[in-house]
Every structure is written in structure tokens, then in C-alpha cells.
Amino acid sequence: xxxxxxxxxxxxxxxxxxxxxxLLRAEGHRxxxxxxxxxxxxxxxxxxxINLSTHxxxxxxxxxxxxxxxxxxxxxxYAGMIITAVADTIPDKIASLVYLDAWxxxxxxxxxxxxxxxxxxxxxxxGEHGGLAVSPIPLEVFNLNQSDRAMVSALCTPHPIATFxxxxxxxxKYQSIPKKHYILATGWSPNPFEGFMISVRxxxxxxxxTLPTGHDAMLDDxxxxxxxxxxxx
Length: 233
Prior knowledge:
This protein is of the alpha/beta class. It is 34% helix and 16% strand.
């Protein structure tokens, strides 16, 4: 059985993985879906000190204190930044990397640098949250299924703004991870992650797959996401 660590994206929390967690645990796997500092049920911890490094450390600590090895590490969206840095720091602990419609950074990249001019509109909402965080992007943008929109809207929380501007530091040790998977959600547009899919396909060392879902694939089609995670293990 595999050890899965599933890392949520911006504005979400560990709750977004609940359906996949249940499916994987039913098959006997060990599954962890931590909530990052300042988000979800940890939103009361929001502060100006929370940055990308904080969230990287969240996941590093989980793996350390749960004494995990041979981890299947999956990151959704924003968490692509996190899992890349985690795998780069402890490549000996990671058996497989899975990017689910996620950013795939190079050394020195940040969300702001990858997202380009669009980040300006996003951060304007920080004034509504004391300059500490940015408001959730409307779910319509991600083409989330209608039945989940009310629930997700109620559970999303403002995202710590500094996480978008801190560059990630990488030595490319993560490239040594034996299994690397990229899953692109094709059911929403424009999808800013399409370029990463092209890159990994050209590399020849990645397994690339698509899902015909909106951005929040683990909600739109948890059965398929769980199946692909098992295949990646």
C-alpha cells in the first residue's frame, strides 16, 4: 500500500481532498491531506509572516513527523510550487510526484512571475483583508460543477498574499524522483497550465495525462483522480 500526501491549492484546505481520501483509504492506503497555514480550518492563523516557505515547511514537517517514506506527493494548482520544493529538499523520501493542474516552477519562479500581469488584478482584493490575503477567485472561472459551488464557496478562505511573491529556490534534485506525472484538466479555459503539459510531454521523462474536468478535478471527478493517483504510486 502507498503513502499519499495530497496538497491543496490556493484558497482551499485539506477538505477539498475528502472524497479522494475516502476512496484511497478504502483501498488500504495511508493518506494525508494537510491544510496549509492560514487557510481552511487554520485560517485563524493568518499573518503577514506566512509565505511560500511556510507552506513548504508545513509539508516537510508532515512527512518528517509522520515518519513517511516512499511518498506519492500530489499538489494541486498553487501546490505545484510546494511539492516541487519539498521533493527538491527530501528527494530520498519521495517515490512519485503528481502535479494536478498545477504550477511547475523553475528555480527563482514565483506565482507572480508565472502568472504575469493578471496577478495585479488578483492582489487588489488584499485591501479587504488588511493587506494580508487575497479573496478567492470566482468558481465560475474554474468551471467547477454546479452542485459543489455553494459548498466550496462557503469553505474557501482568503489566501496569504506573500505566498504569491516569494520565489522558490530549487537545485533540481526533484528531477531525480523516479516517477513524475502531470495531469491537465481540460474542462476549463483559458488554462494557464497548458504550457507545462507541453513541456513535460517533450521531456520524455514524465507521464502526462488529461482529465475532462474543471480545475478542481478532485471534486468534479474524484474517482478518476483517485485512480490516477494509484497508477502513479
